[in-house]
Description:
Elements: H1 19-40, E1 42-51, E2 56-64, H2 70-79, E3 95-99, E4 108-111, E5 117-120, H3 122-129
Antiparallel strand pairs: 1-2, 3-4, 4-5
Amino acid sequence: MKTTKNNINLKTKKMEITKTNLKKFRQELEKSLAVLEEKFELKIKQGNIRFDEVSFSMKMDFRNEDAKSQIEIDLANHYGINDYDLTKKDYEGFKLFGYNRRSSKYPFIVKNQNGRMLKVDLKYVAKWFVK
């Protein structure tokens, strides 16, 4: 059985599912996806690859480039707010990181550059992130 340095069987063209081969596969896939991102004006986010000896899988997320984030949609739907700058870093470098719909008291999660996270209410979000 002839194999190349990529552990691909030349007779059957089957890839051996190993960590190193999957890294190479992911690099090739990223090149292909970059073409699709540009062609269809999408953002494509790849998740972790899970694999065993027989198969592998990967989660992929496709979004329009100009689409609003889930936080922006939640702010507009639940609070009727459209004028927040969610990319703005304010108050000790905090950035709006998440939103918990089930939390009525402190639904917003902010994170600073050191990774420290805090739960805050709408009052602080309005104060820190208004445009």
